[in-house]
Amino acid sequence: MTTPRWLSTEEQQLWRMILSAVRKMERTLDETLVEKHQLTTSEYAVLVTLSEAGDHDMRLRDMCQALDWDRSRTSHQITRMDKKGLVSKVKCAGDARGVIVEITPEGERRLKDAVPAHVEVVRKLIFDPMEEGHLEGMHSYLTAVLNSGSCVEINDKRSAEL
Questions:
Q1: What's the predicted TM-score (pTM) here?
Q2: Which residues form the HTH marR-type domain (predicted)?
Q3: Which domains does the chain have, with CATH numbers?
Q4: What is the pLDDT of residue 153?
Q5: N or C, which terminus of the chain has less Cβ within 10 Å?
Q6: Rounded CA separation 6/10 (Å)
């Protein structure tokens, strides 16, 4: 058994601050979308993804990749949104197992109504508090975190170091 590389006091404080900041961002965005627009953040993410797609539609498997969600989560989310009339599911021509997800006019309307408030919350919560140099530093740091590999790769790398 290997000895954990414990966090220093400063690292522990920063880690807890990161967790608190992420929870605050998620909670604030959720509250804005649900209370003002009756959309969850997951629904909003799907609608944005579809609105940015060429024909406002996308194969389900491509949507999984675009959202970085597993197939089960994506499929359940799309089914719930289909029942609400925000998206529709269509069989893929030439592939009986494939599903195309399309944004509906109601989905487009709800997204269009929600975007201004969502962007304003993002601006106030994330960008307004930034000072000179924060944007570049955050971009660099988050890029490094995102490029650090999957959980399995990180754990395998750590085991190899020991």
A1: 0.83
A2: 11-147
A3: 16-118 (1.10.10.10)
A4: 58
A5: N
A6: 11
